[in-house]
Design a protein that fits this description.
5-stranded parallel sheet; 14 helices
Length: 348
């Protein structure tokens, strides 16, 4: 993008004085990038940016955490997880708390580490906390494929896998008042931009696929302001996102997983919004089905934050009882969480 074009966009966004436009991003990395680039301060007061349910850790219900803790307490089982999830509280404690009490919990950087650990230690069952959206599901499918290839019987997945279209539909139909969506960039590399065409027409709301650099996000917001009230899909992230997406990734996902209903923090069970292992591969499941219960700490407004009903700073606990060092809700734990990003950037 030429500097002159960017300057024109910045000027137009700052001086916009039309009808209020409410734009939601549904990607945790977009949430972080918007705060890191100081984008809210570059916009007119008539343009509202709202963080949606795009952080996988944040939308995971406490029943999943409780199940992981239960598994980690078993003598023969080791639970593997990414860093953010280890600090999220279940109904009583977090995986980090459980580890302090002797539970078998290890933090890893790649799900593929599960394969080598299980292969080198046949005396223990290794359970990976497989949470995430369409971006990470292909990796979990690859883990499973490798485990089958090696004949590993001591590797399992506890899945809490979500898909975007149905939760976007839920947010719009439950009073979100959204005028446009910044479609999730990482997710779209897998699904393709066409994933949102039908949804846009059905909801009458525009979608723009975006990358994560400040100038591209500004151009995306400008496009959505210009498209207000007109359904359609635009792709600003053509360097990484095609119309059809990653066909090989889709193929391996469809080999091992199938669509399912899924429970979301603050939203309950949403029909067709998740993925579970197919029946023929359920021996690799660590007990993922029917994990629906969700316990919110007293005073925590994470549920309302996730669907854009309030801003993080409107929660009475924000920045007081709830900080990144003493997080009450998952939205303050994860670096992709709305509350965390509002706190570290000073955004209001």
């Amino acid at each position: 993008m030429a500097n002159t074009e960017l300057k024109d966009i910045v000027k137009a966004l700052k001086e916009y004085d039309g009808e209020e436009v409410r734009i939601m991003e549904v990607c945790g990395t977009h949430t972080a990038a918007i705060s890191e680039n100081g984008i809210p301060s570059m916009l007119s007061d008539k343009i509202k940016l709202i963080s949606g349910p795009g952080c996988p850790v944040c939308v995971t219900v406490t029943a999943v955490i409780d199940k992981l803790i239960e598994l980690s307490m078993r003598e023969d089982t080791i639970v593997l997880t990414f860093g953010d999830l280890i600090r999220v509280k279940g109904s009583k404690m977090s995986l980090a708390d459980a580890k302090g009490e002797g539970a078998h919990v290890k933090m890893v950087y790649s799900p593929m580490e599960t394969v080598s650990m299980a292969q080198n230690d046949p005396g223990h069952t290794y359970v990976f906390a497989a949470i995430g959206f369409e971006t990470t599901t292909p990796v979990y499918a690859m883990v499973l494929e490798k485990a089958i290839e090696l004949g590993l019987n001591n590797l399992k997945l506890l899945t809490s896998l979500k898909t975007m279209p149905e939760v976007i539909r839920w947010v719009v139909k439950n009073g979100g008042g959204i005028d446009g969506f910044i479609a999730p960039g990482h997710v779209a590399t897998i699904t393709g931009s066409d994933e949102y065409k039908e949804l846009s027409q059905e909801l009458g709301i525009p979608f723009v696929v975006s990358g994560f650099e400040g100038p591209q996000l500004l151009a995306t917001i400008y496009a959505l302001v210009s498209m207000k009230g007109k359904p359609g899909i635009r792709n600003m992230y053509k360097a990484a996102v095609s119309e059809e997406g990653n066909l090989k990734a889709k193929e391996i996902v469809n080999k091992y997983f199938e669509p399912s209903d899924a429970s979301w923090r603050g939203m309950g069970k949403i029909k067709g919004s998740g993925m579970v292992l197919k029946e023929e591969y359920r021996q690799f499941d660590a007990g993922s089905l029917e994990l629906d219960e969700d316990h919110m700490p007293a005073g925590c407004c994470c549920a309302s934050v996730l669907v854009g009903k309030i801003k993080p700073c409107d929660c009475p606990l924000f920045g007081k009882a709830c900080t990144p060092d003493n997080a009450h809700g998952a939205c303050m734990v994860s670096t992709e969480g709305s509350c965390y990003n509002y706190f570290v950037s000073g955004r209001r």
